[in-house]
Design brief:
Elements: H1 4-27, H2 37-53, H3 61-93, H4 100-116, H5 120-144
Helix pairs in contact: 1-2, 1-5, 2-3, 3-4, 3-5
Length: 145
């Protein structure tokens, strides 16, 4: 059921995904073709905010902080998996893998490679953004529910 908390959660996490995507693009090599990187991350932020974060709010400030941090971690993990899968598909189309199992393992190899590029600034942005998103969405959940 649509609620103000779900809408605000989706918007906050989409904004966080946009900000973090910009930070990630700064640490990637210059020749990187990002393609659907930012739009996909924004859609993931919308989904995590609407489906997971929005339904769990309205139970106090400490709970909102916890939900916000968990949502930021979920945003990072789902985004990392989606981008790793996208990179694996690009490599598979270039015939870099010998079979399906090697391609599936390639998702995790690419995920580890991308995860190693994460800097402290990106982690701090995710944590602070998750907390702020949780608090803002919790305020809307308590006020308009």
């Amino acid at each position: 059921m649509p609620t103000a908390a779900r809408l605000v959660s989706a918007i906050c996490l989409a904004l966080l995904a946009y900000i973090v995507s910009g930070q990630v693009m700064e640490v990637m090599p210059e020749a990187t073709d990002f393609g659907v990187f930012v739009p996909l991350n924004i859609v993931i932020g919308l989904g995590v905010g609407w489906i997971w974060m929005g339904q769990n709010l309205g139970h106090g400030i400490s709970h909102a902080i916890s939900i916000g941090l968990t949502a930021a971690a979920l945003l990072f993990l789902v985004g990392l998996f989606a981008q790793s899968s996208n990179e694996m598909m690009r490599l598979a189309m270039a015939n870099r893998y010998d079979g399906a199992f090697e391609a599936i393992a390639g998702i995790f190899v690419e995920g580890l490679r991308f995860g190693q590029m994460m800097t402290v600034d990106i982690g701090i942005t995710l944590a602070v953004g998750g907390i702020v998103s949780g608090l803002i969405a919790n305020w809307f959940a308590r006020r308009y529910s």
